[in-house]
Design brief:
Chain lengths: 270, 270
């Protein structure tokens, strides 16, 4: 593989995944991944543009940012690209009234959306909210629609919390797709539209940007398909087999965000 | 389409699906589909061989047969081909110790199976047992195995109970497949092995047998792929769009089991 200088040449903007890169979520607000608070601060002090691009759909951005700030991170709501506000824009544009299969903590993001007489289903990481009854209700709404629309906030397979790996929204979306014989529309990584929003908000071209994430498919593969470079950190949900993934090859692996930032500050354009 | 006489010529054995064909399950033991008690009795009095081939995996055969007999059906446990006993045979043959994600009512079917220190997961229609916690436990067992084996008792998309349509095991299997990046082994319809067991138990060749079911993919498509003929009833989970399914074309549609039996008694070999 080429030297880091070559691989990072021309990078002007950095997209950071949050969970598994900055911290592992979990009971009591989660746990910082060592060195990442300082790494974010150094990155923001450098000339590089920074944006947080997350598939977090279990918490509102306000809750998420509150948790991160409590852990010492310098981050504000306006710096975060997350699926719920992007979904609200789409729902409004298309006159869709969702049945929400979402976590209570993210419901407030949909406060301005009409949910009466639903003509679509929006599914997000509902955690314990993924009960049989709630899944069946969403299924019944979809089966009752002539043209069923299922919108999924990300397609994550799983994520890591302090106590271990946890099922994410992707599997539950697959369950509804299979039961109803339909295909979901994905709002979030790895959807190209979602990465493009984040790039647009940051004001850099795909070829000038690099994604740093712990998900080999959602973060690394998704960003690369948009023309960006992507590094995988060996934290969060990273598993050694990811370094030999049959389809996705990261532009580089780093032990953690701190190492990624060291390399960027040495080699990227500032 | 050819006349019924031609379509049913040479039929000597009849495979009957249970739920949606004989009755709709539900609160208080479910509800008979009109005419089906008499239809089963007439079929059994004729010279045709009859076997009940079901993907029911939420109840033990004992419970299921008890429910059916209570509703007036002439059926015994030995006439039923169902996934749980077939699964037990496979588990024993391969020395597999399952983590069971199953309904409490079917757990007794696995009484003789060692479930300590699991090296596979068996998933069946768990109904309300499909909580987030139970799904996550099964997921974590699979992720902890070097060669994860997931055995699914059927791949049903949904079934009908008296109160409406209900999610079946198929979607939940898809969820685990996606989250773990694996493929499940299916024990039940539409697995060819399962249909072949039922044929062997009945002692007829595939070309001499006809399946009667309400599931266009699992019953009709599965049986046809084994060389059998198959009729779809317009009861249970049948939906009008099934008559124009993009991939599966039934050998005939009948309003209900009673009509199917009328036709068989007129045209099949006895």
């Amino acid at each position: 593989m080429a030297a880091w200088g070559e691989r990072l040449a021309g990078v002007r903007g950095v997209l950071l995944d949050i969970s598994g890169v900055l911290y592992d979520s979990g009971e009591g607000g989660g746990k910082v991944i060592a060195g990442s608070v300082e790494a974010v601060a150094r990155l923001k002090r450098s000339g590089l543009k920074v944006r947080f691009c997350t598939n977090e759909s279990q918490k509102s951005r306000r809750l998420l940012v509150g948790e991160l700030r409590h852990l010492g991170f310098d981050v504000s709501e306006s710096e975060v690209t997350a699926p719920p506000p992007a979904t609200c824009r789409i729902l409004k544009e298309r006159g869709l009234r969702p049945h929400l299969l979402v976590h209570d903590d993210v419901r407030s993001e949909f406060d301005e959306i009409d949910t009466s007489n639903p003509n679509c289903v929006v599914i997000a990481d509902a955690g314990e909210g993924f009960s049989y009854q709630n899944m069946n209700e969403a299924f019944q709404v979809l089966m009752g629609l002539e043209n069923p629309v299922l919108m999924s906030l990300g397609m994550g397979r799983y994520y890591k919390v302090t106590s271990g790996l946890m099922l994410d929204v992707g599997g539950y979306t697959k369950a509804l797709e299979y039961a109803c014989g339909i295909q979901a529309e994905v709002v979030g990584k790895p959807s190209p539209e979602f990465f493009k929003s984040a790039l647009w908000e940051m004001g850099v071209e795909a070829r000038q940007a690099i994604m740093i994430g712990d998900d080999i498919v959602g973060d690394v593969g998704g960003a690369q398909r948009c023309g960006m470079r992507a590094l995988q950190v060996r934290t969060g949900k990273f598993r050694p087999s990811d370094e030999h993934h049959p389809e996705v090859k990261a532009d580089g692996h780093v032990d953690n965000l701190a190492e990624a930032v060291d390399l960027l500050l040495q080699h990227a354009d500032k």
